[in-house]
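queue> pop job 88
queue> type: inverse folding (structure -> sequence)
queue> payload:
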């Protein structure tokens, strides 16, 4: 039997690439270093059936994200607008609170059940044509005449997997930091990868689930901007009808400060901030959690601890010769137009799969479209 196509990373990009390769009739091995699929997509909550809050991405924008919208429809998922009714709050450095009556809406949509529902629906689509191996990390790639020899590491140890073709969906910085390639990729290209920030990798989110959206009853949208912190921007994260209530905030304090303060203290400070903003009911959530992406080694590198002043300009992937016939790069940071966003994860996956399938057609038919007699 021929070697499978191997997809590395089961974030949104790797899952979408695997689904598209499956549709094209290919056998796929999907390897994911983490014990869960989803990568930066992560929805969490307290206990079975409880409301889940997005600790990674929450929003998409249908007018700007056609692929996400199409996928949400294809997977028969529902979406609803971010709740923005009521006054928002501004917290000054001295703790003074100001109310802003103007509604705040940017057309942001949320997926019912959390963004993780996208990942779960994609996983449910995979047939036994796609073998998903969680807890399996790619360490190195060696180019051979008949494919790529991948060194993989799992709980049982390290082994070599031969791949006909490979799609690597790691953020460029992780690729440059963690993967050894033989023959080596040009130093200039590796430096460019090191210099490419992983979107949101330096961020952290705090979320709290409540029995009631008590802020709504007080005429507040749940949205707040703070110059005091530790959260700099807070939003309502309740379900569609507010039946299960939640707030989340981006922790604006820098990764170094967060690491120094420690997780428990930071959670206490975040809860105290919610009390300052929304009153004493905020002190007793049913569930709360903090996800610090800067401390997630399968997302962030130390270079991602430096704050970004603007959205980086991402570029389409360049694979050096002689790897071009065998390896494709995907992942949101490889999308020139939508880099950083969920849309970019899908865009880059589509492009990588298109390139790979075109290459296989050439390999099967020969460069001139005639059947390849050596196959
Ligand atoms: C806090 C936060 C908020 C965000 N908000 C939004 C938002 O509102 N809207 C939006 O559009 N986007 C948002 N984003 C960005 C969005 O999450 C990403 O664009 C998207 O999830 C990237 O998907 P990906 O598959 O390209 O990469 P990833 O999700 O990073 O997937 C890469 C996968 O590779 C795995 N991996 C790493 N190393 C190895 C290895 N050596 N071997 C095997 N597997 C490996 C990782 O574990 C991971 O599963 C946000 C991100 C964060 C962190």
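queue> result:
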């Amino acid at each position: 039997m021929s070697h499978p196509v191997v997809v590395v990373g089961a974030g949104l990009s790797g899952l979408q690439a695997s689904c598209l390769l499956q549709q094209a009739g290919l056998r796929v091995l999907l390897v994911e270093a983490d014990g869960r699929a989803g990568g930066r997509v992560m929805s969490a909550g307290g206990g079975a059936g409880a409301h889940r809050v997005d600790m990674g991405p929450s929003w998409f924008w249908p007018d700007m994200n056609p692929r996400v919208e199409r996928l949400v429809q294809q997977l028969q998922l529902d979406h609803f607008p971010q709740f923005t009714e009521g006054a928002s709050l501004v917290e000054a450095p001295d703790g003074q609170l100001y109310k802003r009556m103007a509604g705040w809406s940017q057309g942001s949509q949320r997926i019912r059940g959390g963004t993780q529902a996208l990942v779960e629906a994609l996983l449910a689509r995979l047939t036994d044509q796609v073998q998903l191996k969680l807890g399996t990390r790619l360490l190195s790639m060696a180019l051979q005449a008949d494919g790529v020899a991948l060194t993989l590491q799992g709980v049982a140890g390290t082994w070599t997997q031969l791949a006909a073709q490979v799609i690597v969906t790691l953020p460029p910085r992780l690729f440059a930091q963690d993967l050894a390639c033989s023959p080596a990729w040009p130093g200039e290209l590796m430096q460019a990868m090191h210099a490419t920030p992983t979107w949101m990798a330096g961020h952290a989110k705090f979320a709290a689930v409540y029995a009631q959206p008590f802020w709504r009853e007080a005429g507040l949208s749940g949205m707040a901007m703070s110059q005091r912190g530790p959260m700099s921007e807070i939003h309502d994260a309740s379900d569609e009808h507010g039946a299960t209530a939640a707030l989340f905030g981006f922790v604006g304090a820098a990764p170094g400060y967060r690491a120094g303060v420690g997780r428990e203290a930071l959670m206490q400070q975040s809860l105290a901030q919610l009390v300052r903003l929304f009153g004493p009911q905020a002190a007793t959530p049913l569930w709360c959690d903090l996800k610090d992406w800067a401390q997630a080694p399968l997302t962030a590198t130390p270079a991602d601890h430096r704050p970004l002043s603007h959205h980086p300009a991402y570029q389409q992937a360049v694979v050096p010769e002689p790897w071009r016939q065998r390896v494709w790069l995907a992942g949101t940071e490889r999308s020139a137009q939508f880099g950083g966003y969920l849309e970019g994860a899908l865009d880059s996956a589509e492009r990588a799969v298109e390139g790979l399938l075109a290459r296989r057609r050439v390999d099967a038919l020969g460069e001139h479209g005639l059947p390849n007699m050596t196959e």
